[in-house]
Amino acid sequence: MSMHMKMAVGACGLLVAIAGCDPEVIIYEKQPEKRTVGSPCVIDTECGSGRCSAGVCVVNECETDADCRDGEICNPLTHTCEPVTQYACAPGMSPILQLDQTSISFGTVIVGLTQETTLRVNNIGDCLLTVAQAAIDENVSDDEISCANCGVAEYPKSVPPGHYIEIAISFAPDLEQAYGATLVIRADDPSLTNGVLEVPISGEGLGNPRISIDPALIDFGNVQPNDPAVDREVTVTNVGAGELKLTRVFIDPPVSTPMAVTPTVEATGNPISLVANQSQVFTITYDPSSLATTNAVLFIMSNDDTRFCAADPNNTPGVGCVELKGDSHSPPVISVSATSHDFGDQYLGAVVPWSLVISNLGGSDLNLMISMGVVSSTDFRYQPPATSIVAAGGNVSMNVYYEPAQLGRVTGSLILQSNDPNQGMVLIGLSGTGLSTYANDVLKFEMTYENGDSGFFGDDYRDVDLYVENNFGEIVDKASCPPNTAACPDWTHPGMGSDQFNYGHPVWSAIGVAQEPERVILFDAHEDARGSFKACVTYREDCASIPSELIAALLGISVSVLISGLTEGIINPDAGTISDFIANNCWDHSSSRAHITTFVNGSPVDETSVSLGSKGDSACPVTVQRLDGRYCWPGAPAPCPQ
């Protein structure tokens, strides 16, 4: 007898003694526990979830009817599969389809954007509703209105009484116009005509307004208080598809400026409306009554929320602006100490300076831009002044150099461009004559390198220097030779008897604060001097480390004070400030490329480039030999060796 049977007999024996019973009829069996999800199973009843699928107990959950077995539907409220038979319609029962809205209106939607909505299909009847199809009628509908879940695979859908399904509708206009569509629903609601229900859908495309403002800057220049008022125009155009509304147009500062705009648009007034491609012209009038420099801003506020103005401290969307400038002082007047200069006769290799003074005799700032004109050689160069702005009544001086590298007379010009309204360009004629030395050939190396800005607070701090070395190991660079002078020592060496090896006289020079380009000029090399000259470059400074000059500039002290302070431990540089500066201004600027041009007697004969990876790198990419009274370089014509 089994353990279960024994327990039944024993229990029944007790019942017989009390009231009588048949132990062979009353049997107690303990039921097995339900299996958990993931456990093996054969039938549904073995699983606590009531679902056995592919021999494993699974969760009884669903999202759509497709997640359920044949003969089941997904209850959208409980998300569980239920037998469809329990909702089947019996005699006297029927489903009733009810929509939460009988038509759909998207209203206005901006062109290029998409708006979505859902239509809820409810079953308020007392038995199962079957929705056989939901689709946009392509014959009467615009393509811009679509249904996301109206595919053939989505239907039929079963809706139990008291439940619903949702149909997703979207509207994406591409033109500024009205759109329409019809959603067709087919269901087994007996009250529907032919089982069909139509839902009209409408919407209207509204274009994006886009503002165009021209110009972005108006500089009235110099207008005297007694001069007639000057007008300039600003054209505002709607280059978008939607209606542009100009809600406010004004000049700031509003009281102190001698400028006015017509028409004005006040915040409390009626806006100016512009349809696509329509323009509105505003007139800006400058009428100063006193001597002053005026800087103002014309603000134009609109419903184009993609527009921002740099002059707006709040960076408010929908604000456009025009920068306005004017000066009622007397205009700048440029004056130069000389309009030409002849450097005279100079021996080859000399460095001859000449000082030019530029004055401003007017009442407003003089803005300068200086360049070299067309020259017959590279023998002329200039050192720009410390500033390109000359204050009213002030002056600046600059040096112009003649470095004769060829025999005979050469000419050139220096171009001074400015904002002098009566004399916007001044030409300074230059001339000079190169005289023979013991050896007339002049060798010149000129180096430029990649460096966008050499200022402390610019975006580039790279610095590459040029130097030249002879075959005795002697070097001429800016450290060993005073720049822009002829004071470098001769490269002469004792020879046999009374002879001397003369490797010439070197000169190192550079242009501007950035010292770029840099030049080394070698003249007076004797014909019997058989030697070689290497043009080399060294990467003096990059952005991988912090130069002491830069730290001093950041701290507002001199380099000597910085070094003393760091040595004594009394200065603690702000690491965050220095780190931010390096990260912002020196990123991807560690390497540099240098370009060396070789000149013989003023004519370029070779161009070579070399890449330098980081600070401290050096390279000597160019070698020129002095053979039998001539300079030879790779590729030089015979009789130079090939």
- How many helical stretches? 4
Give the biggest beta sheet.
Answer: 5 strands, mixed
What integer value in Å does the Rg equal? 46 Å
**Helix and strand composition category:** mainly beta
Residue runs with pLDDT of under 50 for 5 or more positions: 1-20, 454-458, 556-571
Helix coverage percent: under 10%
Q: How confident is the prediction overall: mean pLDDT?
A: 82
Rough shape? elongated
Strand content: 35-45%
DSSP summary, beta strand count:
43
Terminus-to-terminus distance = 117 Å
Question: Order of strands side by side in the largest beta sheet?
Answer: 6-13-12-8-10
Explain what this protein looks like in three dimensions.
- The chain is mostly beta strands.
- Helix content is 7%, strand content 43%.
- The protein contains four helices and 43 strands.
- Strands 6-13-12-8-10 form a five-stranded mixed sheet, with no helix packed on it.
- A hairpin with a 4-residue loop joins β3 and β4 (80-83).
- α2 (548-555) packs across α3 (559-568).
- It is elongated.
- The protein starts with a helix and ends in a 10-residue tail after the last strand.
- The model is unreliable at 1-20, 454-458 and 556-571 (pLDDT under 50).
